[in-house]
Amino acid sequence: MPEPSERPQIVVVMGVSGSGKSTVAELIAAKTGWELLEGDNLHPAANIAKMAAGHPLTDEDRWPWLQAIAEWMTAQVGTGRSGVVTCFALKRAYRDIFRDSLAEFPHTRPTFVHLTGSRDELLRRMTTRPGHFMPAALLDSQLATLEDPASEPNVITLDIDSTPEELATAALANIRTGD
């Protein structure tokens, strides 16, 4: 685990539905003591209803949600606190909203932990988890929307073939704790 930093950190655990964002984010937050935000909790009710009905969100649906997450990040860093948030963050434009929201804090850049896996494994996970609003029928639309962040700054890509504990440990080993 990284040494505590005087500079607040923001970690965005991202990936398509079923990749284990919530589980890995919870572990990172528990290991660091950083505040955790489940990004899905900021979705407007209309977004949840739309996805639950099997309809993919549009960019127009996502902008207010992404902005709410960005505002949370800014509030965290503005008060000197680090945080971990889950978010699909499928497109670079979405991730750039988060980067831009922290521009006033030159020593804090969000770190994106991109959880990735095979379609078959993602589908298996989606069909075996109880009570989630996201139907497995939307997996292909998410995979089609995903813009691989590998070439972007501060991205850690991890394959979900590892255990959640191993993923959290690997993420923490690679998170920048200050420059």
What does this structure look like?
With 179 residues, this protein is an alpha/beta fold. 44% of the residues lie in helices and 14% in strands. It has helices spanning 21-32, 45-52, 59-78, 92-101, 119-128, 139-145, 164-174, and strands spanning 10-14, 35-38, 83-86, 110-116, 155-159. The chain has a five-stranded parallel sheet, sandwiched between helices. The longest helix is centred in the middle third of the chain and has 20 residues, at 59-78. Residues 1-5 have low confidence and may be disordered.
List the topology elements.
Layout (H helix, E strand, L loop, with lengths): L9 E5 L6 H12 L2 E4 L6 H8 L6 H20 L4 E4 L5 H10 L8 E7 L2 H10 L10 H7 L9 E5 L4 H11 L5
Parallel strand pairs: 1-3, 1-4, 2-3, 4-5
Helix pairs in contact: 1-7, 3-4
Q: Order of SSEs, N→C?
A: EHEHHEHEHHEH
Approximate shape: globular
Cα-to-Cα separation, first versus last residue: 17 Å
Given as residue ranges, the uncertain stretches (5+ residues, pLDDT < 50) are: 1-5
Mind summarizing the main beta sheet?
A: 5 strands, parallel
Proportion in helices: 40-55%
What's the Cα radius of gyration? Answer: 15 Å
For the biggest β-sheet, the strand order reads 2-3-1-4-5
Number of helices: 7
Q: What fraction of residues sit in β-strands?
A: 5-15%
Given helix and strand content, the structural type is alpha/beta
- Give the strand tally: 5
